[in-house]
# Entry
Amino acid sequence: MKSIALFLMCTQFLVAQKKHFHAIEYNLSFLQKHSPRMNFDPEGLSHGIEYRFFKQSSGCKHWENYYNAPRIGFLAKFLYLGNPNQILGHAFSVYPFLEMDFGKRFHLLLSDGIAYFDSPFHIKKNPKQNAIGSHWNRSICIKGQWRIYRNRYFDFFSGIGFTHYSNGAYDSPNLGLNYPSLDFHLRQKSVELNPFVKNKNAARIYSKWSTSLRTGLALKELKTTGGPKFFVYTLSVDAGYHYSDYKAIQFGAESEYHAVSPYFYEHTSAVEKVNPFQLALRYQLFVAHEWLLGKTSVSLSAGYRLNKDILLGGYSFYNKLNVSYHLPRLFRVVDPIVGISLKANFGVADHMALYFGLRWHKLKSSSN
# Structure
């Protein structure tokens, strides 16, 4: 009977639901100078305009119900990057996004996409731009917005956001750009969630513990703009405690091999008693939190490098953002994963890696 009732509620929701919605947004932001190595001083404010195209999920799937029927869509953004504009120029971005409700008024938006810069570093035309070294970059955007007015046709929101641009050190220079923003948002009136019923007594689908193994590969350009690119090889293992089906805390260890270290050692040092291979290895411990959103997961980690005798290692403390896609399960136990990882040291990108992994996570029951 419960299954029939849930099916009828979902059917009612889908029939009453509009297919798609539109929204526009204005961003008032500024460039945060997060590194003293920037060759220029940001001045004044930046201005952006966004267009969103999205749909409301039904909340009938287990993960949708857990996150209160989130909205899924695409976002296009134009940003005047501020002054000195002859150095910074403009950025054009496209993102897929997920927006979740917390209460009746507050929304949280998560997005990860690509951005095109019309004025990156150029040794002759734009030599002072040492924050962005390529036309194409990755962009990550997070927003928290509060609905402050609604009428029959529209909802009006205001809130704060944060947008990061970087190519993950694939092309140097690459200090990255960070833009905090004040946002003003107008959208078509969203579907009322009266038909949506939160299932507070849903049975667990997965067991509480998991183990993951991942290996990754990155290319980075360091020191010499337009010079050679160097491989970064990564290997990690972690144990995860899943305090819900869609949230987990992970503890792990990882190693990285940076091919750039022995290259620079061999070309700049006359010391022969050091093993160049050891200079390239990083041994690290980390703790992370993961959110599972359907077949996609997002995790944020903080880590510490244990060994000190390395070359071009940067800071010992670091952060990583992992965005993963979970492939069809194998033998009801193994979860293949592919994804992209961005490692940063105090806001400056170290590398961006593509990775493949396997997760051993026992399935308790079938999911939808």
